[in-house]
TrEMBL record:
Name assigned to this protein: HTH-type transcriptional regulator RafR
Secretion signal, residue range per the UniProt entry: none
DNA-binding keyword on record: yes
Keywords on record: DNA-binding, Transcription, Transcription regulation
Species this protein is from: Albidovulum aquaemixtae
PANTHER family: HTH-TYPE TRANSCRIPTIONAL REGULATOR GALS, LACI-RELATED TRANSCRIPTIONAL REPRESSOR
UniProt superkingdom: Bacteria
Pfam families per UniProt: LacI (PF00356), Peripla_BP_3 (PF13377)
Name of the coding gene: rafR
Domain HTH lacI-type: 10-64
One MF annotation (Gene Ontology) recorded for this entry: DNA-binding transcription factor activity
Length: 337
C-alpha cells in the first residue's frame, strides 16, 4: 500500500468529524485530560488507532515547546544478557499511552555518553534523558543539574545535590550473597567487581565486606579482570587463580556472563561447582534456571527498572522535585514471571 502523503494523513480534524466533537476536545482527549469524559477519551483513542492517526510532532513542538522524545543513552552492558532489550521493553511499557516515544542512542566509549548528552541538550533533541554507568562524581549528572534538564540515571552518585535515579541494591546483593556462602560453610570468599570508577562497584564492595567482617572469614578481590572484561578474560583470570595455591572456596559474581565464565573456568580445571567451589550469581536474564549444574542466583529485574526510570522521568519533566524521584530496587530471589 503506498504511503500516505502529508495532505492525506489523518489529522485531529479527521477524528473530530468522525467522533462528532470539536478539534479542541480531540486534542484534550488525546492528551488524556481528566476533564474530558472517559467514554469520549476512549472513543477518540479508538478512532485514532483505526485511521492510523499519528501526531504531527513538529507542530506539537511549536505549540508546546516539547519534543515528546525520551533519549536513552545505551552502553553495551555485555556482562548482562539482554540488558538493552529488557531496559527498552520496560521504558516502552511506561511510555505506552503517553505522547512520548523513545529514541535509543548507543554509547560505546567512556566519554561518548557525555558528548551525546551535551548534544541532546544543546540541540533540544529530547525532553528528558535516561543513562546508566554512573560514577561517584559523574560529569553528566553535574552538567544536567546545572542545565536544569530533566533526567533519571540508572545508578546513583555521591554528588551533594539530589538527582533522580533508579538503582539496584547492589550492596544488599553482595551482602546477602556472601552471607549465604558463609552459611553453607565457605571460609574463603572472592568477588569479581566492576571497574572502581563505577558507583555500583563501591556498593558491591561495601556489601561484600560487611558480611566478611561480621563473620571473620578470609576474602579477596579477583584481579586481572573486572566484571566488564570480555568473557574469555574473566575465564582465564579465574582459571589462573584456581591453578594457584590456596584458592577461594566461594565466588560472588555480579553478572550473567561472569557466572558462565566462572563455571567454564572451574569445570575446565576438573573442579565441581557446588562442592569444591560455591558460586552465587546476580542474573538479569533468568538463564541460570537452565544452567547445569545448578548455580544459586539472585535476580535484578531490568524490565521493572526501565518502567520505573521512565515513570520518574515523566514526573520530573512535569516539574516534580528531584529529591522525590529516587528509588532503590530491591533484590529479588527469582526472576519475576
Amino acid at each position: 500500500m503506498p504511503e500516505r502523503s502529508k495532505a492525506q494523513r489523518p489529522t485531529q480534524r479527521t477524528i473530530a468529524e468522525q467522533a462528532g466533537i470539536s478539534v479542541g476536545a480531540v486534542s484534550r482527549a488525546l492528551a488524556d485530560d481528566p476533564l474530558i469524559a472517559e467514554g469520549t477519551r476512549a472513543l477518540v483513542r479508538k478512532i485514532a488507532e483505526e485511521i492510523g492517526y499519528t501526531p504531527d510532532r513538529a507542530a506539537q513542538r511549536l505549540r508546546t515547546g516539547r519534543t515528546h522524545v525520551i533519549s536513552l543513552i545505551l552502553p553495551p552492558h555485555d556482562e548482562i544478557f539482554g540488558f538493552g532489550t529488557s531496559m527498552i521493553r520496560g521504558i516502552s511499557t511506561a511510555l505506552d499511552g503517553t505522547p512520548y516515544h523513545l529514541v535509543a542512542m548507543p554509547d560505546f566509549g567512556r566519554g561518548e555518553s557525555e558528548a551525546t548528552i551535551r548534544r541532546v541538550v544543546r540541540d533540544s533533541l529530547a525532553d528528558g534523558i535516561i543513562f546508566s554507568r554512573t560514577e561517584p562524581d559523574d560529569p553528566r549528572i553535574r552538567f544536567l543539574l546545572e542545565e536544569d534538564f530533566p533526567f533519571v540515571s540508572h545508578g546513583r552518585s555521591e554528588l551533594a545535590t539530589p538527582h533522580p535515579y533508579v538503582d539496584y541494591d547492589n550492596f544488599e546483593f553482595a551482602r546477602r550473597a556472601a552471607k549465604r556462602l558463609v552459611a553453607i560453610g565457605a571460609q574463603h570468599l572472592a568477588i569479581l567487581l566492576p571497574p572502581r570508577r563505577f558507583m555500583f562497584s563501591h556498593h558491591l564492595l561495601h556489601g561484600f565486606m560487611t558480611t566478611v567482617r561480621e563473620n571473620g572469614v578470609r576474602h579477596e578481590i579477583l584481579d586481572n579482570a573486572t566484571l566488564v572484561s570480555p568473557p574469555d578474560t574473566i575465564k582465564d583470570a579465574i582459571a589462573r587463580r584456581y591453578a594457584e595455591p590456596d584458592p577461594p572456596d566461594a565466588l560472588v559474581l555480579p553478572g550473567d556472563m561472569a557466572g558462565l565464565a566462572a563455571l567454564a573456568a572451574i569445570q575446565d580445571l576438573g573442579l565441581v561447582p557446588g562442592r569444591e567451589v560455591h558460586l552465587i550469581v546476580k542474573q538479569a536474564s533468568g538463564m541460570f534456571g537452565l544452567v547445569r549444574p545448578r548455580v544459586e542466583s539472585l535476580y535484578e529485574d531490568l524490565g521493572a527498572a526501565g518502567e520505573k526510570l521512565a515513570a520518574l522521568l515523566l514526573r520530573r519533566i512535569n516539574g516534580e522535585p528531584a529529591a522525590a524521584l529516587q528509588f532503590v530496587q530491591p533484590v529479588a530471589e527469582t526472576p519475576v514471571s
